[in-house]
Amino acid sequence: MAESKPITKNVDWMVVLIYIACLAIGWVNIYAAVYNPEVNSSMFDLNNNAGKQLMWIGTTVILITCILVIDYKFYETFSFIIFAIIIFLLIVVLFAGSNINGSRSWIKFGAMSLQPAQFANLGVSLAIAKYLSDPAISLTKRLKEYYPIIGIIAVPSLLILLSNETGSMLVFASFAIVLYREGMPGFIPAIGIVTAALLIITLLFVKWYIAGIIVLIAGATIWLMPTMTRRQGGLWATILVAGVMLGIVFGVDFFMNNVLQKHQRGRIMVLLDPDSDPRGDGWNVIQSKIAIGSGGFTGKGFLQGTQTKFDFVPEQSTDFIFCTVGEEYGFVGTFVVVTLFILLISRLVILAERQRSRFARVYGYCVAGIFFFHFMVNIGMTVGLMPVIGIPLPFFSYGGSSLWSFSILLFVFLKIDSQRPFTLSRG
Fold first, then answer.
1. Residue-wise pLDDT tens digits, 179-225
2. What is the pTM (predicted TM-score) of this model?
C-alpha cells in the first residue's frame, strides 16, 4: 500500500460541509432553546448550554485533526482493542459512575462528564467491521458465523441496560442494516418487524381475537398445503410459527408489567394513545407537537418561540431540539434539517459502496445505520411517531459526549475513505 497522503487529501468535502452546516444550525438552536430574555446572555457565554456547546465544538476540531493525522490502518489494526477499552469503561461506570437524570452512565472528571455509552457505537462498529473483514466469514452459509457478532452486540447492550440507558442500547438495532448488506437472510429482520407489529396490534386490540385470527390462518395454511410440502416439514413449521406468534400475543402482558419499567410502559401507551396521559408521560410529545405545529410554514423567527421561552417542552436543548427548529423556522427549517440528514446518510452509503476493502465497507454501513437510526427515532419521537426513548439528534442536541462520539464515528470513516485510492481491493 502507498503512504498516507496529507490529512485533507481526498477527504469527502460534501460530508464535511454537511457536518459543518449541522453543527452551526444545531448550535444556534441550542442557544434559542436556552435563551432567557430576562438574562439576555451571549451565545458565547460559558454559563449557558450554547457557550458550553461551542467549547465542545472547539475540542471536537482538535479530535478531528488527530483522527485525520493518525494512519488509517490504525483503526482496523486496533479495532478489538478499542472495543475492549469501551467495554472496560462501561463496566467502570456501573461501579463508579455518577447518576444523572436517573441514569448511572456518567464518569465525572471535575466539572466535565463523559458518557461511555455514547461511544459504544464506535467500538461495536469497529469490532463488527474487523470480524467481517475476514474473507472466510460468510453470513449467507453458516449460522455459527453470527455467534461472535451476537456477542459483540450483546455484551455492551447488557452493560448499557444495567446503567439504565435503554435508548443507547436500542441504537444497536441499526446494525441489522449492515448485516443485511453483508448477506444476512431477509427473513431475520422480517421476524423482528413482524414481532414488533404483533406487539403493537396486541396492545390495540383484544388478544383473544388476534389469537383466533392466527389459529384460523395457520389452519387454512395447513389445509391448503400440498401433501409433499406437509411431509417435508411444512406442517410442523406452520405449527411452530403459529405457536411463537401465540406466545408473543399472550406474553405481552408479562413483558409490559414485568420487563419494562413504569415510565417505559407509559411512553408506549402514549405512542398508541397520545391523550392517555396528557400531564404525565404524554406531556413532552404533546407540547413538542404544539411547538412544531405553531411554527407554520416559515416559523415565528429566531428567539421568538413561545413554547421555547416558557419551557413547555422539557429537554428542549437535548432530545427535543428538533421542536425548536420547527417552532422558530417552521416547515422550511424542518425541511432543511431533514434534507441535510438525508444527504448525509445517502452520501455515507455511496462512500461505503465504493470501498475496496470489506472492513471499510462494513464500517461505513455501520456509521450510516447509526445516523439513520438516531435521525429517524429522534425526529419521530418529537412528532409522536416513535416512543420517547431519549436519544440525541446528531450534531444538533446539546452534549459533549454525543458530539464527540458522532464526530469520531464520522471522521474515522472519512479518514479510511480518503485512503481508498491507495488501498488494494480486499473483499
1. 999 988 887 788 888 888 888 888 878 888 888 998 898 888 888 87
2. 0.88
Asked if residues 120 and 165 have their Cβ atoms less than 8 Å apart, the reply is: no
Query: Of 313, 263, 317, 321, which is closest to residue 290 (Cα–Cα)?
Result: 313
**CA-closest candidate to residue 129, choices 80, 81, 85:** 80
299-350 pLDDT, tens digit each: 898 888 877 766 677 777 888 899 999 999 999 999 999 999 999 999 999 9
Those residues with Cβ within 8 angstroms of residue 359's Cβ, 6 or more apart along the chain or in another chain:
76, 129, 130, 132, 133, 426
| Interstrand relation of 98-100 and 112-114 (parallel, antiparallel or unpaired) | unpaired
Distances (CA, A) of 347 to 13, 126, 344, 372, 407: 11, 20, 5, 12, 16
* CA angle (303, 305, 307) in 5-degree steps: 140
Neighbours of 170 (CB within 10 A): 18
pLDDT at 111 over 90: no
What number of helices (H) and strands (E) belong to the chain? 18, 3
Q: CB–CB of 84/127 below 8 Å? A: no
- 176, amino acid identity: A
**pLDDT tens digit string along 376-397?**
999 998 888 888 887 899 999 9
Q: Are 383 and 289 in contact (CB under 8 A)?
A: yes
